[in-house]
Amino acid sequence: MRRAAWMVSLVAVVAVALPAHADWDDRSTGQKAGYTALAVVENVVPVASAFAAPKCLPGYILCKAFFAFTSVVAAGGQFTMSGGSDHKQTNAILHRGFAGDWFLTGANAAGDVTANPLPDPGPGSNPAPGSGSEPFNP
After folding, report:
1. Which terminal CB of the chain, N or C, has fewer other CB atoms within 10 Å?
2. DSSP labels for the chain?
């Protein structure tokens, strides 16, 4: 019974949210409420978050927390392997895990704003020539 109620509510939220094609600021209050409800569902319900962010299947918030945890583990390993000398790469790994959107909003659910759970580390993460961090080329 609960599963049927969840499915009916999800279909109702999608039915309210789909017909709109206006910009987020130009939408009616009802459409904004429908998209915001859809975003709440996508934040916590597994597989539903894949509509807004294809990289996240277990629910957007859990997915983002997993990315952040994984970045801490990867940055710790990278910091250990570099002997503590490559701070730019460590910061880039942490930035990639912790930056970006931590939850979906109604604008994300509407498709007006693209969700970004894993942002690019940026150009500052590349090692500078002569810094000792570049690969060995004999």
Report:
1. C
2. -HHHHHHHHHHHHHHHHTT--S-GGGS-HHHHHHHHHHHHHHHHSTTGGGGT-TT--S-HHHHHHHHHHHHHHHHHHHHHHTTT--HHHHHHHHHHHHSS-SS--HHHHHTSS---SS----GGGSPPTTSS-SPP--
pTM tops 0.85, yes or no? no
Q: CA–CA separation, 95 vs 118, rounded Å? A: 9
Residues 22-36 pLDDT 10s: 677 788 888 889 989
Tokens for 88, please give them. Answer: 């730019």
**CA–CA distance, 65 with 30 (Å, rounded to integer):** 31
pLDDT tens-digit map of 82-118: 888 888 888 888 988 898 888 988 888 888 888 888 8
